[in-house]
Amino acid sequence: MESTRDTRARQESDEALAAQYEISFDGRRYAFRQHHYDVFRDALHYAVAEHAKAGFLRDDAFQPSWVAAYHPTDEDEGMMRMHGIAYIEGHFLYGGYRYGQLCDAIAFAADHPNL
Q1: Cα–Cα distances in Å, from 52 out to 35, 43, 82, 92?
Q2: What's the CA dihedral at 94, 75, 10, 63 to 10 degrees?
Q3: Residue 105 in contact with residue 83, Cβ under 8 Å?
Q4: Which of 41, 52, 97, 106 has a 20 to 30 A CA-CA distance from 60?
């Protein structure tokens, strides 16, 4: 199991790389220009490749933004347990489907119990 200190160091390292390559994080997804990613390494790979292209122009208006990762509240977790919904890597999971919003997962779970 990864220690809290190791996780924090990796996050700080990711945040520094993100700023260098014009990637932002909104607490759920990573963005490089108009592209969005669920996984930081995917965003970084694309951004590094774009930066390496001849004639690449940096976005002078880019402002680094790195929001703390979203985590369900205690109340949310209670609702999730009631409906059998899991939360993994920024997504709510129920019945083999992935949802970006808890309310959508709950609505489906309420109409389709025991999946």
Answers
A1: 17, 14, 49, 36
A2: 100
A3: yes
A4: 41
